[in-house]
Amino acid sequence: MVYIFVGIAGILGALSRYYLGLSISTGWQHDFPFATLAINLIGCFVLSWLTMYISRLNILHPYLVTGIGTGFIGSFTTFSTFSVETVKLIHASHWGVALLYVLSSLWGGLFMSWLGFKVGDSFFKKQTQRTLRSKGGQNS
Fold it and tell me: Where are its TM segments located (predicted)?
């Protein structure tokens, strides 16, 4: 059953990446592959947030959490496109752009994952405190 969730979410993630990439690329006419960078950074944040907030609340079935994380986000983000775009930049002797792309992908991805972790953890703690307060008020 988990395979169905992962498969359907994977289709949706791939389609989302494709259409978002097209939308971003229409307004971007430079060598720097901004669309892939933006998509990968969004994916880093969302996966980390999902892990630290939604999955800890236990409001979704674990199959659905796996489907979203592995299926949707796994197909939404793309290491292979990042790699091919980097190789193309190097092949075209755009060394500075390639280096900027690699470093911004690496450090930006780590930062967005950290940010998603912190935001998710903060949301979880606030939700837990609200739940404890509401249960405490019912016992009075």
Answer: 32-51, 63-83, 95-117
71 is in an annotated binding site: no
Asked whether residue 77 is marked as a ligand-binding residue, the answer is yes
CA triple 108-100-48, angle to 5 deg: 15
For residue 64, which of 19, 73, 131 has the smallest C-alpha distance?
Answer: 73
Handedness of CA 7, 80, 16, 67 (dihedral sign): positive
pTM of the model: 0.89
Give residues with Cβ within 8 angstroms of 133, minimum separation 6.
none
Q: What is the pLDDT of residues 8-25, one digit of tens each?
A: 999 999 999 999 999 998
Domains of the chain, by residue range, sit at 2-127
